[in-house]
Amino acid sequence: MNKNKNRMIPQEDQRLGTLTKKDRRSMYRRWIFTAGLGYNYETQQAPSVAFSMAKALRKIYKNEDDYVKAMDNHFKFFNVTPHMGNIILGATLAMEEKDGLKAYDAVQNLKASLMGPLSGVGDALIWVLLPTVFGSIAGYMALQGNPTGALIWIFINFLLYFAKMGLFELGYQSGTKLITTMSEKINIFTDAISVLGLMVIGTLIATSIKISTPLTFTTGDVTMELQADILDKIMPKLLSVFLVAFVYWLMGKKKWSPTKIIFLIIGISIFGSVAGILG
Q1: 175 and 98 in contact (C-beta within 8 Å)?
Q2: Are residues 42 and 118 in the same domain?
Q3: For the chain, which terminus, N or C, has the lower number of CB atoms within 10 Å?
Q4: Do residue 74 and residue 22 come from a single domain?
Q5: Which domain holds residue 226?
Q6: Are 230 and 137 found together in one domain?
Q7: Are residues 144 and 247 in the same domain?
Q8: Are residues 158 and 95 part of one domain?
Q9: What pLDDT does 73 receive?
Q10: pTM of the entire structure?
């Protein structure tokens, strides 16, 4: 009975000692520089996860069969904002190191349960808020001939590198404890970031998109400017809002590419200027 029982237990006893900081940083660098390179429509970022984990898992699992099984577990579907993926991979690495194949199902469950919430935070914060705010500042300063904006943008990305390293260490050191506790508050944080992002985008529409019309209407001795006397009275920057809504509709409903939309706007601008419709 005891012999059969021992045969069924995975060979965690053959795992090596704990990983060094160098091992963890190697895994972190592999992930952050290859997160999107193995992307496919079946498992999405899974090849990058497996590549990132390979060296660390090789050190954890001495037995070849255990190593292959652990690697195969990381070839399953995975998709998350790369910056936030550091937390998940750090936590899963800690689980693998502590429990070996006993954590086989727990590792996959953790990844599956946190991909969505952490992507919500990452997409809103990393992909929307930071590029919108700092990219706009950099672009505006560049238009004024000031290179400081570009330096700010480079500096922000430099800081993000170390922030991502910190997130990986946070996930590794805290394991599942911090993440499972934090997951309850993630939705609230995501909603707050989304609202803030929308406020910033709304401000940028009013300040960055400049579109107006010089059209006037004359009735007897009264001359009315369409822009100042009608549109601005309804809502300032109304044409800018309409343009953004039109572009959003083209991208969302008609699936137009950004390149096609850029050429369309250039065409409308040229025609409107020549015809005297747009100023």
Answers
A1: yes
A2: yes
A3: N
A4: yes
A5: 211-275
A6: no
A7: no
A8: yes
A9: 92
A10: 0.61
Arithmetic mean of pLDDT, 226-235: 90
Quote the pLDDT of residue 4.
43
Same structural domain for residues 93 and 14? yes
User: What single string gives the DSSP state of each residue in the chain?
Assistant: -HHHHHHHS--GGGB--PPPHHHHHHHHHHHHHHTTTT--TTTBTHHHHHHHHHHHHHHHB-SHHHHHHHHHHTTS-B---HHHHHHHHHHHHHHHHHHGGGGHHHHHHHHHHHHHHHHHHHIIIIIIIHIIIIIHHHHHHHHTT-THHHHHHHHHHHHHHHHHHHHHHHHHHHHHHHHHHHHHHHHHHHHHHHHHHHHHHHHHHHHH-------EEEETTEEEEIIIIIIHHH-TTHHHHHHHHHHHHHHHTS---HHHHHHHHHHHHHHHHHHTS--
Tell the burial category of 152 from Cβ atoms under 10 Å away from its Cβ (0-12, 13-18, 19+): middle
Residue range 94-150, pLDDT digits in tens: 888 888 888 888 888 888 878 878 888 888 888 878 887 888 788 878 878 888 888
| Tokens (6 digits) for 89 | 């991979």
Whether 16 has a pLDDT exceeding 70, the answer reads no
What is the reported pLDDT for 197? 64
Query: Both 195 and 215 in a single domain?
Result: no
Structure tokens at 228: 């100042």
Q: What is the mean pLDDT of residues 145-167?
A: 85
Last residue of a domain, one of 186, 206, 226: 206
Domain count, the chain: 2
Q: Does 181 share its domain with 270?
A: no
pLDDT exceeds cutoff 50 at 42: yes
